[in-house]
Write a structure and sequence with these properties.
This protein has 240 residues and is of the alpha+beta class. The chain contains seven helices and seven strands; from the N terminus they run E-E-H-H-E-E-E-E-E-H-H-H-H-H. The structure holds zinc ion.
Length: 240
């Protein structure tokens, strides 16, 4: 593990443990769910789903009786397959359904994972840098996920996509996202989240009687970006 890069370097099939901490005294012993979702680090790739290469996915689907959500996910819990409290999410048939591993933890503890593909796999990850996003979810989200899994998975994954999009909202490259109509829509929703946050920050600054010039410039810039992207959608939808 490199502290300098905040990056794990690990071989395929080699277990690595992550410690999850939360203040369990405030939750009265209620279990928590940790969702691990693998995403591409690069903003230009952020909308693409990380999935296993053809070769490794093919080997697993032949060798074992695994669900498609397990076969396609590059990340696995190191607990034995079929163990209670480990759930694999994601629908291969829906391009915007991302793969994640959901683990139920009854108290703050370590959990081990391993990768079942390499960065160098020629399809799948294909040498692109990846991040793992860990989200701590409470039992309410877990219960909802059980009653209507598809809607909740899509919503949660949409949230993660927005987070990835808003990492560097001002650097969204219009030319790059312009190539794909789905990409533009996702970029717009990411920018809208940033705009709402900026507007809230502005209200707070006004309340504290602080200057808002810098934040005003940001808001104007964001609005212009959103407008630009929206107009590119209109042009595509109604060709002259
Ligand atoms: Zn592979």
């Amino acid at each position: 593990y490199s502290h300098h890069l905040n990056r794990i370097y690990v071989d395929m099939l080699c277990n690595f443990s992550i410690r999850f901490n939360w203040d369990s005294s405030k939750l009265a012993g209620q279990p928590m769910y940790v969702r691990a979702t693998t995403v591409f680090s690069d903003l230009a790739q952020a909308e693409k789903r990380v999935e296993r290469c053809f070769q490794h996915a093919h080997e697993s689907s032949n060798a074992m009786n695994l669900s498609p959500a397990v076969i396609k996910n590059v990340l696995r819990s190191s607990r034995e397959m079929g163990t209670q409290d480990v759930y694999y999410c994601g629908r291969p048939d829906l391009a915007d359904s991302w793969y994640s591993v959901l683990v139920r933890l009854s108290k703050p503890t370590e959990h081990a994972y391993h990768f079942v593909c390499k960065n160098s796999c020629s399809s799948g990850i294909n040498r692109r840098a990846i991040d793992i996003i860990f989200t701590l979810e409470d039992a309410i989200v877990g219960a909802r996920a059980c009653s209507c899994p598809r809607r909740d998975i899509l919503r949660d994954e949409g949230d993660i996509k927005n987070k990835v999009k808003t990492k560097k909202p001002l650097k969204v490259d219009k030319q790059e996202t312009d190539m794909d109509i789905v990409g533009v829509r996702a970029a717009i929703s990411g920018l809208r989240v940033s705009l709402t946050m900026m507007e809230q920050a502005r209200t707070y600054k006004l309340m504290m009687q602080k200057h808002t010039e810098a934040i005003d410039r940001c808001i104007t810039h964001l609005k212009a970006l959103i407008e630009n992207l929206e107009s590119s959608l209109t042009v595509k939808a109604n060709p002259p």
